[in-house]
Amino acid sequence: MNTRGLRSQLKDSVPVAGLCPQGSYGIQDSLRSGFTSVKNELLPSHPLELSEKNFVLNQDKMNFSTLRNIQGLHAPLKLQMEYRAARQIQRLPFLQSSNLALDTLRGSDDTIGFEDILSDPAQSETMGEPHMMVEYKLGLL
Amino acid sequence: NMPPGIPPRCFCELMVHFQPFMILGADTRATDDMVVADKNCRKIHHIAPRIYCCGAGVAADAEIATQMMASNVELHTLNTGRPPLVAMVTRQLKQMLFRYQGHMGSSVIVGGVDVTGAHLYSVYPHGSYDKLPFLTMGSGAAAAVSVFEDRFKANMELDEAKRLVRDAITAGIFCDLGSGSNVDLCVITAAGAEYLRGYDRPAGKGKREGQYRYKPGTTPVLTKTQTPLSLDVVYETVQMMDTE
């Protein structure tokens, strides 16, 4: 495995634990975000964490560069424009979108992976407060 | 079928009368280090009507990998309108296992009959694969492959092949601590698949030779007190143990 390549994907600006806690009122929200640990924010907790987080991105990059080499610059540009357009179609902020257009473009609508079985957003236990989220999105809050 | 003695006139005529078949065999022991966790588990998983696979290694990983394969193969079949190829299953499996860089510890043997004939592939946890006439995997692989190396011939008859696979699995059952219990076979032909669960049970429980009970009165009784307890049966349930 090319770990040097993966290390380059680590964030450039490191969020130091304790300086900018995620909770409200400026303190670390241990209930929601867990305990603080500098190591957890710097290094991946599993050898495959970075590889899996960027898997779709890397696959797309590889496919687009191959397409550019075979068919020229316009083919990947046009596809990326379509991806961007499909990604913009979302529902209201507190509802999970099915991303059907994006799946169809990518060709992942006829494959089943772990992301379809585990952690299904339709069955998540938490949900945002609908009114507040819509007001925040519209800038009324 | 052509009667023996008449030579085939051309290659395509030979293909018409050659019945491809594939036999997969497995033992039924699942271990947790040195403890037998399940003495009658199913290791041969269904992927498509004529493609089955045997999973060795971590049981959960093998189970989930084969279930993903089965789902993807079904979607692919619905998409293309054609029955699946064994090579397709192998390719998807090896791409998935390579993606997880060996952390998904399942070594799988995929075998089946498709439109191009009978094929057998083995896929290792890191994503490499082999295509061979006979393959073994798991802790008992060395014992089983020795039987194959000795007696395998090309173009065997179905019964002879079943006996050979049964003997190979039995060698693994007796010579390897990680394998045991029964032999499961799966015979796949162009007509369909036949899952023979418990085809052979070589390691059965022994029969007790003598009587090990003592006659009443062997131990002398010195004193005896009896206290009757009046009990009523309030609730009775029967729970069957899963011994099959």
From TrEMBL, chain A:
Keywords: Chaperone. It comes from the Eukaryota. Pfam families: UMP1. The keyword tRNA-binding does not apply. InterPro entries: Ump1. The keyword Chaperone applies. GO terms for cellular component: cytoplasm; nucleus. Coiled coil: none annotated. One of its GO terms (biological process) is proteasome assembly. Belongs to the POMP/UMP1 family. This is Proteasome maturation protein. It comes from Oryzias sinensis.
TrEMBL record, chain B:
It is an enzyme of class 3 (hydrolase). Pfam families: Pr_beta_C, Proteasome. Gene3D superfamilies: Glutamine Phosphoribosylpyrophosphate, subunit 1, domain 1. It comes from the Eukaryota. Keywords: Cytoplasm, Hydrolase, Nucleus, Protease, Proteasome, Threonine protease. Its EC number is 3.4.25.1. One of its GO terms (molecular function) is threonine-type endopeptidase activity. Its main location: nucleus. It is found in: Nucleus. Residues 205-238 form the Proteasome beta subunit C-terminal domain. This is proteasome endopeptidase complex.
